[in-house]
Please model this.
Amino acid sequence: MKIAYIDKKDCTIEVKSKLLKVDEQKIPLRLIDTLVLAKSSHISSSDLVKLTKEGITILMLSSRGRDVAIVQSASSQNAQLKLAQYHAQHKALEVAKRLITQKVKLHTSQLQKHQIELEISELLAQIESVTSRESLLGIEGSFSKLYFSHYFSLFSKRLHQGKRSKNPPKDPLNAMMSFVYMMVYNLITVRLLSYGFEPSIGFLHKPFRSHNALSSDLMELYRADINQFVWTLFSSEKLKSSDFSKKNGVYLKYSSRKEIWSDFKEFMQSLEPNIDKEIGYIRGLL
Model:
């Protein structure tokens, strides 16, 4: 995934002669397949159309990064694949079990990096024996509570309140986790769209309003990586509590967000081969 991030206040963006012009900077369009606009920018609707015609998908973030709009070509892609997703729903429980089994193992391995051991053999047996997605999600919820009770212990208490909070996040740690979860979820959605999938048709999660269930399914496999990435940002003091503002929730400041884009881009590049591998696995089921 060739991602370009533009996080500059009131910049002017134009498309001319196969180049993306950001004020005085020029980027060849061939070097971009996903454009993240993380701050209010001046770009015309005609230039947005030019970008989508070049196969570039645009992610537009709200000022606090809580909400995202995805802009891409209106031409339909791979209707047969979308129909196959629908017809493959009889395999939903099988796929969901695999996802949660992998999630448990990956989260356990992430804690092991910090000398925290979890006994999961009985849990894995429970997952294998469940007969419904609802029961599976119940097991996953219980495991997540156990996992986070250990994960939060890795951080200074100045950064968190000891539990997961969202909508809105109530402390810097939860704010950063939510921000990276949101970004990876949307970039997975972009990847699924680029291959012609319907992101709202999942196997573990069920479609609901604007929720992309398949994106959430795949996200389960990368949450442990995200959590480790967040730990690295705080443990290296690249992020501190002073990098967050508090108003109707806790959010990463604009000035601090700009400083971590290069780290996030490197992190996404590390995930990309596995994301494509898992998308290939899903395709193989259809």
In short: The CA atoms of residues 7 and 227 lie 23 Å apart. The mean pLDDT is 91. The beta strands are 3-6, 13-16, 19-22, 25-28, 34-37, 57-61, 68-71, 244-246, 250-252.
